[in-house]
Amino acid sequence: MIYKEKFHITFSFSFHSVNLKNSLIATEFLNCFCCPSIYSGFWTMKTFSTILALLASRVIASSIAEPVSELKERNLEACPSGGNLPAGALYPSLSVLVSQKLPNVPFSSTQTPLHTANDFCTITNFLLPISSSGKICTLEFLFPTHLSTLSPYIYTGGGHFNFTGYALNAGATTKTTFNTQPALGPNSANPPSVLSPGNSYVINSAECPPAFLYPAGKSELLVSGMLCTTDTYLSYLISKSLGCPIGLFVTIT
Question: pTM to 2 decimals?
């Protein structure tokens, strides 16, 4: 594992005949971060090219990194307080990138949410089951350190974020752009303004929508919101099995 503190980068790779494709995390990183189709050629790859070139030279020189199977067995640090997901917690049903500087360009869905200063934001959808009616729905952002998760993420900057909530049943689609966002809805009165590693944050907590608000014949209700930043670069891999979870989740209690 290579840890670059300056950029808060963690890569985890397995090796078999020096074949990067054998690493699940490497494949996810290469496909999600470096696929030109996601950014339609508008975003420069110079930074990632440099990183990957350095990584490739390290791979050729030595198989110093542990296999993923060994990494999964090593002891990780405990999750941040409140950073464990209880049974029944909801993962995103869809994550979509939008750009303030390319407001009419759709970027489709992603497994690596991206947030950049005054530009890229990520809209996240969740599907609330009708069984949640009458309970408390809590939207959380969980942010473990690199020592408590194997999910790769990049974080640098001041950590200032803002969250925009959308109307019920008005989430994003794969064709959503910054200029075609869903209709606005209720927002948290006091969302956290700073997100930093080693913490868990409550974005909003309120009574789950009552059953009569669900579309006729439907057992799920779409809820959605957008996370943006004014001074930070943050991107991470959504994963269910790489240590402490990172990103937006909904818990129902």
Answer: 0.72
Q: H or E element: which one contains 163?
A: strand 161-165
Distance of alpha carbon 108 from alpha carbon 39, whole angstroms? 9
What is the residue-wise DSSP string for 62-83?
Answer: ---SPPHHHHHHSPPPPPPTT-
Domain membership flag for residue 79 = no
Residue with tokens 């991206």, as numbered in its chain: 114
Are 152 and 246 spatial neighbours (Cβ–Cβ below 8 Å)?
A: no
Residue keyed to tokens 């309120």: 206
First to last CA, the chain: 37
Per the structure block, which two tokens stand in for 220? 């799920």
Question: How many structural domains compose the chain?
Answer: 2
Contact 156, 236 (CB under 8 A): no
Range of the domain at 47: 2-73
pLDDT at 74: 54
In a domain, 158, yes or no: yes
Among candidates 191, 195, 224, which has minimal Cα distance to 205? 191
C-alpha distances out from residue 209 to 4, 59, 141, 166, 253, Å: 43, 51, 20, 14, 13
Domain end marker among 40, 73, 106: 73
Task: Give the tens place of pLDDT for each residue, 147-192.
Answer: 999 999 999 999 999 999 999 999 999 999 999 999 999 777 677 8
- Please report whether residue 181 resides in a domain: yes
**Number of CB atoms found within 10 A of residue 167's CB:** 14
